[in-house]
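Entry 12.
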Amino acid sequence: MGKNINKDAAYKAAKPKENDYMINDGGGLFLFVGKNVTKS
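Predicted 3D structure (tokens):
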């Protein structure tokens, strides 16, 4: 359960970069962060 807390913090702290990118949890769940300040 502790690992989920770290991932949650990483997802919340995700900031837009020059290119779109994804944060993957290693279990099939990912967060897409767009360069135009979108999280989906």
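Annotation: The chain has one domain: 2-39. The chain has one helix and three strands.
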